[in-house]
Amino acid sequence: MTGKYSMYTIYEGHEIMFHVSTLLPYSRDNRQQVERKRHIGNDIVNIVFVDVDDPTQSETAHSLFNPTCIKSQFTHVFAVVSVDRENQYRLSVFSDEAVPLFGPSLPCPPVFRDAQLFREFLLVKLINGEKATFETPTFARKRERTLDMLIKDLYSEHMTDARMGCVLFTCSFQHKLWPVSQIYWIEIIYLLGRNKQAN
C-alpha cells in the first residue's frame, strides 16, 4: 500500500525505519499526497536534505529553511543536511520550543568531513531528539493515557491469575516463596493506587 522500498538500519540496538518521501507512492490525482503525508507527517523527527546547485551556498540554504512551513502535530525536530563540493556534510537542527535540550551538541562549525562519523552523530542526535520530544506536554499526556490503559488492561487480565496465586500461597511457604502472579498483582495494585493518588 505504501511502496515496496524503504531505508532501514540498526544502531546500538535501535531499529530505525526511514520514510523516504521519494520512495513512498506518488499519485498524480491526489494534490494532498496522503500516502506520503500519513507517514512523514506522523514522524517525530524529519531529515530535510537540501540539494543546492552551488555547494558554496550550502550555509545560506540552511538559514533559508523555515520549519514552520511544514504543518504537523507530531513533527518536533528537523535535521537539515547538505553536502558541499568537498563532500563535507553540514548539519543544522531545528526543534520545537517545547522540546528539552538534547545532545550531542553540534560542533562549531557544524561540518563533518568523515561520512561514517557524520552517520553516527546524526543517528544519535535524532534518537535523542525523539526521546526528548516525549517529554513535551503533547506527548507526555498521550504517554500517560496509554500507560494508564495498559496498566488497567494488565490489572483486569491478571486479576484472576493473582487470586489463584493467593490460594496457592499456603502458610508453609509464607516465609520462603511468593508466587510470581501475586507479586505482579501487588505491583499492579500499587501502580494503580499511585495513579489514583496523583489524580
From TrEMBL:
UniProt superkingdom: Eukaryota
InterPro entries noted in UniProt: Rap/Ran-GAP_sf (IPR035974), Rap/Ran_GAP_dom (IPR000331), Rap1_Ran_GAP (IPR050989)
Keyword terms of this UniProt record: GTPase activation
SUPFAM superfamilies linked to this entry: Rap/Ran-GAP
Annotated Rap-GAP domain residues: 1-154
An annotated Gene Ontology molecular function: GTPase activator activity
GO-annotated biological processes: regulation of small GTPase mediated signal transduction
Name listed for the protein in its UniProt record: Rap-GAP domain-containing protein
Organism: Tenebrio molitor (Yellow mealworm beetle)
Upper classification of the organism: Eukaryota, Metazoa, Ecdysozoa, Arthropoda, Hexapoda
